[in-house]
Every structure is written in structure tokens, then in C-alpha cells.
Amino acid sequence: MVEEKILIVDDSAEVLEKTRELLTQVGYNVIACHCGEDALEFLKDNRVDLVILDINMPNLNGYEVCLRIRQTFALDDLPVIFLTTREDTDSVSKGFRSGASDFVSKNALSDILLARVNVHIRLSRSLRYLRDISLTDDMTGCFNRRHGMNSLREWFSRNKRYGTQFSLIYFDVNGLKVVNDMYGHQAGDLLLRSVVSAAKGILRESDLLFRMGGDEFMVICPETDKKGAFICADRMQKAVNDITIVDKKVSFAFGIAHSSEDYKEMDDMLHSADVSMYECKKKMKK
User: Fold this and answer.
1) Among 55, 104, 141, 247, which residue has the fewest nearby CB atoms (within 10 Å)?
2) Among candidates 80, 85, 58, 60, which has minimal Cα distance to 70?
């Protein structure tokens, strides 16, 4: 059974059913939406591997939907194929400018659509594998600092260009040095892996967790206001509090920054969250 999920967006029930049946027969997990608004709402909390999108839809057309998808997902992170009757040069050019990965005519043979889907699925899988190797922290399994800085830079740019909102949570695990000194680095490594595992159990699929170095971590929460970020951090804190390494209870201090606070530079936003985190750490020591 193929694990990849494909989202189909079309206002035609007939096209949805025909395309769903075609893709389901070869093993893809297919989700269908009748309009762009429903598709964007679905993508807020769910990850898919490919989107098949119609252009002519009421309210939000395919170009607008694709542009909004690109505000959150990079071109090599989520391929979008336009399945449409519009094949003229202007429509195709506009589609690629809006962030499309490919175009397939609704009049094309089913084998052509399947071939294009398979190509983009395989390419996306390969890119994901290479990215995971280069951007993952070996010890904890979450993303590394390099990817964290690149991702923050990308999200900060999206906020300035498109107004895309996001929250930043920066947290520091308490007591790592004590655990390392008393019980050895294997215990310290277990502590960090346990924190990452607990945090991932709370975070949404769209949230991004990075190890920034030592005992410091960063979370980027897309489409999340500051209140939502505090709720997320509190939930992670409670999950982490259930961890005991030997005889030491685990906790962390955290700070939060939000893109609406109009930081001039990316480093200003990161510094703000870092300062808030150290203020939290001071309060925890009292």
C-alpha cells in the first residue's frame, strides 16, 4: 500500500470521483475537497504529499489557492499539479508563476496523469530523503540548527512579503549538565531524546522542531497567534514534566515571539524569544 497522501481540489463532483477512483486503485490515500477554502483549511493541520488542483472554481480560483499554498509550503516541499481544461500559454504561464509544479489536461489519458503524479511523488520523496540526511540532528532525530536558521529566514521573509503569520517558541532544557556530570552523557542523551519525543507528541504536523545546540530547541508554529503559542508551550511543558531521568524530573524554560510584533530583522525576533526564555529560566530558579 502506497503511504503517500494526495489532496484533490475541484468543484466538479464527477471529476473528483473519477480522479479519486483512479488514484485509489493504484494505492494512494486520497482526500477530496470541493473548493479552495476547504482545501486550505485542511492543509492547516494536515500534511499531504501532492495536491491536484482545478483552476476554474468559485470564490477562490486555482491560481489563488496555489499562491496561498506557497505561502506555507515551498515548491520542493509540496508539489501542486493543475488538472484543468485551460491549456493556453497565458493560463499555463500564470499557473507556474503562482507556484504550480506541473499541468495536466482533463482531456488527457488517465495514464498521463498517473505518470505525472508518480514522477512528482518520487521526486518529492527523494528530495525529502536527501533533506532529512543533511538537516536532521543525528542524536535527537529533530531538525538541526542549520535547517532552523534557514527555516526561520524563510518564514520571516514570507511574513514580510505575504503577511503570513507564525509564532516562534525557544526553549532550554533544565539540568542537562547536572545529569551529564552525575550519570554520564548516555543519560543526558536519553534526556534530550525523551524531551523531543514528548514535544513531538504535542506538536501539529505543520509545526517544526529544531535542536539549536546543546540543550536549546526552537519551534516554528505556522498560522499560530501568540496565545496559541503559549498554549502549545504549556502543553509541551506538561508532557515533559512527566519524564524522569534516573531520579531527576525534567523541565524547560521557554520564550515566545510572534511575527506580528514587526521585527525589523530575523535576528531581532530570535533574540526576543531568547531573552524571554532566559527571563523564564531566572524565574524558575527563584
Assistant:
1) 247
2) 80
* Closest alpha carbon to 193 in 204, 181, 179: 179
Residue 283 backbone phi and psi in degrees, to 5: -65, -35
Q: How many helices and strands (H and E) does the chain possess?
A: 10, 11
pTM of the model as a whole: 0.60
CA distances from 133 to 76, 79, 130, 219, 266 (A): 16, 21, 5, 20, 26
Q: CA 134 → CA 8, 146, 272, distances in Å? A: 31, 9, 28
β-strand partners of 52? 8, 81
Query: Grid coordinates 509540496 are at which residue?
Result: 78
Alpha-carbon gap, residue 192 to 141, rounded angstroms: 10
Strand order in the sheet with 208-213: 208-213, 216-222, 166-173, 252-258
Which residues, including other chains, have CB under 8 Å from residue 1's CB and lie 6 or more apart?
Answer: 27
Of 280, 272, 226, 232, nearest to 253 by C-alpha is 280
d(CA 199, CA 72): 22
Strand partners, 219: 169, 209
For residue 10, what is its C-alpha cell? 475541484
Collapsed DSSP state (helix, strand, coil) of residue 244: strand
238 closest CA partner among 228, 252, 225, 248: 252
Name the phi and psi angles at 43, rounded to 5: -70, -15
- % residues pLDDT > 70 (the chain): 99
